[in-house]
Amino acid sequence: MRVLIATDAWRPQVNGVVRTLTSLARAAATLGVEIEFLTPDGFPSMGVPTYPGLRMALPNRREIARRIEKAAPDAIHIATEGPIGWSARGYCRRRKLAFTTSYTTRFPEYISVRTGLPTAVGYAVLRYFHNAGAMTMVATNSLKQELAARGFSKLGFWTRGVDTELFRPDEPAQLDLPRPIFMTVGRVAVEKNLEAFLSLDLPGSMVVVGDGPQRAELERRFPRAKFLGEKTGRDLTSHVAAADVFVFPSLTDTFGVVQLEALACGTPVAAFPVTGPLDVIADHPIGALDTDLRSACLRALSMSRDTCRSFALERSWENSARQFIGNLTALHPSRSLRPARAVAARSPVRG
Predict the structure, then answer these.
(1) Residue 315 CB coordination number (10 Å)
(2) Eight-class DSSP state of 104
(3) Which pLDDT does position 114 carry in this prediction?
(4) Bridge-partner residues for 245, per DSSP?
(5) Would you give the distance in Å from CA 333 to the centre of its chain?
(6) What is the CA angle 315-247-79, rounded to 5?
(7) 61-81 pLDDT, tens per residue?
(8) Which residues neighbour 341 within 8 Å (Cβ) at sequence distance 6 or greater?
């Protein structure tokens, strides 16, 4: 089976969507399923401000068609609602091809935080986008219920996993900081609600791993916190393993793969009781959820690191890939697309 995934989020971005898609592709390959990506690579960029590392593509209809037809996929999945996603959606609609989508980012809330645009407007646009597909995959039951209440139809599950070989509790970084260490990892941007964490009166040290447009402002406002910049691979893993508590202050993430990554490192999670943490942590003894984030942070200190690791070991990317592929197979989506003759001889497909 060959699957083409259209995504606006792609390397060099370092975020949950990119990690999810690349991990999915690796796991799917072990199951005999080939995944290719239609990404912003090769398209001109829009002249608009973006996050560091984020490039919004300016795709054209002809090239989108060429890339999709060159891939000749058995199934088409649209992972994001940006220019690439809309272009792939338009291609499928014009040709009456079934496609699936996934809802991974709360763009209405993100846009509202930055512009003041009512979230109802954003949800109306996203409802129009997703309801044209054969299925919209979501990672949690609470998100499914929320979107259903907002008029999204044909919702299905696609859970997330964690690479437990990369994210491990052994060989933690040697951080010369007062204990306990409360750490958060991710994009340093207003929608991540980092101020809610950094303004807490906590003992020990507060650490931020990551980069983004709000870093300079937060470093100036919260001089007590240590900002270590972006880290990847084993460097990232060792830092997460060195923390005593992983703090996830976001109110807008739909899942938060970083929670599973922290748990795989044996680090308990403290978060608000919202979609994502409610589904991952729930009532398991691997973290603490509270509207009082300080209380959650302090309670998480008593959680067993071995229990956190054991919980993560049960949530593999292979299981996630099986569920994703099962959704596509059950829907019998597009098969054997024909290359367009006029453009079939051009450059290769891979994003």
Answers:
(1) 17
(2) -
(3) 74
(4) 182
(5) 24
(6) 50
(7) 999 999 999 999 999 999 999
(8) none
Residue among 258, 249, 246 at smallest CA distance from 305: 246
Measure the CA–CA gap between 146 and 182, rounded to whole angstroms.
31
* Cα first-last separation, the chain: 19
Domains, the chain: 2-161+317-331 (3.40.50.2000), 181-313 (3.40.50.2000)
The CB-side HSE value for 322 (13 A sphere, CA atoms) comes to: 5
* Mean per-residue pLDDT pooled into runs of 10, the chain (351 residues): 95 85 96 96 73 68 97 96 97 96 86 82 96 96 93 96 95 97 95 96 98 96 98 96 98 91 98 94 96 98 98 94 93 47 38 50
Which residue carries 């070991």 as its tokens? 313
Determine the angle formed by the axes of helices 119-130 and 107-115, rounding to 10 degrees: 150
Cβ proximity of 176 and 239 under 8 Å = no
Interatomic CA distance for residues 192 and 109, integer angstroms: 11
Per-residue burial over 198-228, b if 16 or more Cβ lie within 10 Å, else e, is: bebebeebbbbbbbbebbeebeeebeebbbb
